[in-house]
Amino acid sequence: MQKRYHVTTFGCQMNEHDSERMKGMLESLGYSEAPERAEADLILFNTCSIRESADSRFIAHLGEAKRLKVEHPDRLIGVGGCWAQSVKEEVFERFPFVDVAFGPGQVHKLAEFLTSDSLTAQGYFEFEGFTGHLPARRARQFQGWMQISVGCNCACSYCIVPATRGREVSRPMHELVAEAQAMAADGVREVTLLGQNVNSYGRDLPAIGAAANGAAAASRPTFARLLAEIDAIDAIERIRYTSPHPKDMREDVIRAHAELASVCEHIHLPLQSGSSRILKAMRRTYDRRRYMERVAMIREHVPDVALTTDIIVGFPGETEEDFAQTLEVAEEVRYDAAFTFIFSPRRGTEAAAIGEGLVAHPVKVERMQRLLEVVQRGARERAQRFVGRTLDVLVEGASRTDPERLRGRTRHNKVVNFSGLATPGEITQVRVDSATSQTLAGQELLLARAGA
Ligand code: SAH
Ligand code: SF4
Ligand code: F3S
What we know:
This protein is an alpha/beta fold. The protein has 15 helices and 19 strands.
C-alpha cells in the first residue's frame, strides 16, 4: 500500500517553503499526504526556535506523535528545521522515539534516510543544500515561494537564526530566473522571494555580465537586478520579498518599487527598537536616525507604499525612556501593520547572556499593550486611505468569516473580504467600502456597478 506522510510546519515563510519542498520530495518517492497525523506512516515536524513559545508549541505536538508511535511502532517520526538544528543530536536523547532529525540545510537527506535500510536513528546537521533545488508541492497553484539565499551574516544579539541557518549563501541569478520562468509556466502569478536578509543578495556571488572583450565591466548580481530580471517575466504579475534589512535598503531597491510594474507597493522594514542605544545593544548596525532616513527615502519614491515592521519589547536593559522612543517611531512612521514580540532569551545568543530578568515580566507585558495600541491606531488610520478606492485584488479563496464572500490581497498586502464572482488565482478590481486596522471590505467592481 502507498505510504502516507503528514507534515506540521511552525515558524516563518522560509519554513513554509521548506515544507513544500519536503512534500514535493516525498511525493516523488511515492508517498501521498495523509489528512490527519493519526493516519500517517511518516510524521514530520518542520520546527522553529525563534522564541520560547515556538519551542513549547512544538513540544506539545511531539507528545501526540509519541502516543501514535506507541500505537504503531513501525511509524516513523522526523523532526526538521531550526529547533532540530539548534539542539542537534540531543533530539535523540530527549526524545528517543524520534527516528530522523535534520537541519534546514539537510532536507534532501530525508530522502536518503527513507530509502536506506537503516533502522537506527539518524541526524543530519550540515549546512550544505538549498531546499530550492528540491521539487515543490505548492499550497496554491498561483502563488510561489522562491528561496534566493539561505543563512544570515548579521549578528543581531537576540537572534538564533545565524546558528540555525548558517552563513549567508546566495543562489546564482540565472538559476533563480529559470526557476521563476518555470513557475510562471506552471501558473504562478505572484512570487515571494525569501531570504533572511534578501537585500544583501549576491554579495557572495562572482561578477556576471562582462562583455567577452572586457568592454563592459562585470558587476556583481544585486537584489535590485534580480527584481528587474523577474519583473521581465510576463506572466508574473506580483513580486514580493521578505525580509530586507534596513542597513541594506538602498535606493536601487526602493526605485524598483516605483519603476517595476510587478514589484508590489509593500515593504517590510524591521525596526526592532526605536532607541539607538538598544539598537546598538541588539547589533542592528543602524540607529534611529538612519532608519528614519530610509523610511523618508521610501516614502519619497513610493508615496502610497504600505510599510510593515517587527518590534521587540523588553530587550535586556530597555528603560522606559528607550521604550518611549520606540513608541515615538511607531507614531511617526505609522505602520500599515506591525508584528510585536516580547524579548525571549535564546540559547547561545549574546542577549540571553545579558539577562532576561533585566526588564520585569509585568513591565514587558504593559509595554507590549501600550505599543499595540499605538500600532493599531496607526494601522487603522492608514487603512482609511483605501476607502473609496478601487484596488487590484488577487483572489485567494473564500472569506474565513463568511463563506459567501471572497478573500484576497491587494498589492499593499492588505487582506480584503469582498462580495464578487471571481475565482481563486484571478486578479480582479474591488471597490473598498470600509477598513479596520487589519482588513479591508468591499465589492468586486463589476457587482458594484451592476448594483449602482
Ligand atoms: N531575518 C528576518 C526575520 C527574523 S525573525 C529579519 O531580520 O527581519 C522575525 C522576527 O522575530 C524578528 O524581526 C524579531 O523581531 C523577532 N525575534 C527574533 N528573535 C527574537 C527573540 N529572541 N525574542 C523576541 N523576538 C525575536
Ligand atoms: Fe536574525 Fe538579525 Fe539575521 Fe534577521 S538579520 S535573521 S534578526 S540575525
Ligand atoms: Fe523560525 Fe527558523 Fe524561521 S527559527 S522564524 S523557522 S528561520
